[in-house]
C-alpha cells in the first residue's frame, strides 16, 4: 500500500471550467497535492502515456481526446491513496458512477470522463515519473 497516486484532470473538464470544483473535491476528501502542472499533451505524448491500452479499440479516440486540450497533472498524497482515489473518482463510465463521486458530478461519457486515477501503486509511480522530475515535487 502506497500513500501516493497520480491524477489528470482531462480536456473535457478543463474546457468546461470544472478544474476548480474537481480540485476542491480532491482536497475535501483529504488528498494533499505534492506536485501539479497545467499542460497540453501532444498526440505522441498522449500515445506514450496510454501505451498500455494500445491494442484496445478505443486507443486512437483516447489519444486524440487526451491531446485535444489542456490537462492538469498532479501527484496526490493520502493514506491508501490509489484505492481511496479510485473510490472518490467513481466508475470509468459515469453512468455507473456512485453519487458523490467526481465522475458522477463532472463526467460526460466513458471517453470524456473528467479525471484519470492510477490503478495501482506501480502505475502511480510510472505515471508520476512521466510528468514530474524530482525538482517538481516535494
Ligand atoms: P482512464 O482512467 O484515464 O484510463 C483509460 C481510459 O480509457 C479511461 O479512463 C477512459 O477514459 C478510456 N476508455 C475506457 N473505455 C473506453 C471506451 N469504451 N471508449 C472510449 N474510451 C474508453
Walk me through what this model shows:
This protein has 138 residues and is an alpha+beta fold. The protein has a single domain (4-136), classed as Nucleoside diphosphate kinase-like domain (Alpha-Beta Plaits, 2-Layer Sandwich). Helix content is 40%, strand content 17%. The protein is globular, with a radius of gyration of 14 Å. Adenosine-3',5'-cyclic-monophosphate (CMP) binds next to helix 4.
List keywords for this structure.
138 residues, alpha+beta, Alpha-Beta Plaits, 4-stranded antiparallel sheet, 7 helices, 40% helix, binds adenosine-3',5'-cyclic-monophosphate
Task: Spell out the blueprint of helices and strands.
Blueprint lengths: L3 E6 L1 H5 L3 H10 L3 E8 L3 H7 L9 H8 L4 E7 L3 H9 L12 H5 L8 E3 L3 H11 L7
Antiparallel strand pairs: 1-3, 1-4, 2-3
The structure holds adenosine-3',5'-cyclic-monophosphate (CMP).
Strand line-up of the largest beta sheet: 2-3-1-4
Low-confidence stretches: none
DSSP helix count? 7
Bound molecules: adenosine-3',5'-cyclic-monophosphate
Amino acid at each position: 500500500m502506497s500513500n501516493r497516486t497520480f491524477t489528470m484532470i482531462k480536456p473535457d473538464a478543463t474546457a468546461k471550467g470544472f478544474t476548480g470544483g474537481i480540485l476542491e473535491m480532491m482536497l475535501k476528501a483529504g488528498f494533499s497535492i505534492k506536485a501539479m502542472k497545467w499542460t497540453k499533451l501532444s498526440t505522441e505524448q498522449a500515445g506514450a502515456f496510454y501505451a498500455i491500452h494500445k491494442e484496445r479499440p478505443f486507443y486512437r479516440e483516447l489519444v486524440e481526446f487526451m491531446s485535444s486540450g489542456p490537462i492538469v497533472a498532479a501527484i496526490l498524497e493520502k493514506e491508501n491513496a490509489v484505492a481511496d482515489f479510485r473510490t472518490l473518482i467513481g466508475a470509468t463510465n459515469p453512468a455507473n458512477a456512485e453519487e458523490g463521486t467526481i465522475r458522477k458530478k463532472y463526467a460526460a461519457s466513458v471517453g470524456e470522463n473528467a479525471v484519470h486515477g492510477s490503478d495501482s501503486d506501480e502505475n502511480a509511480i510510472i505515471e508520476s515519473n512521466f510528468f514530474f522530475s524530482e525538482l517538481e515535487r516535494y
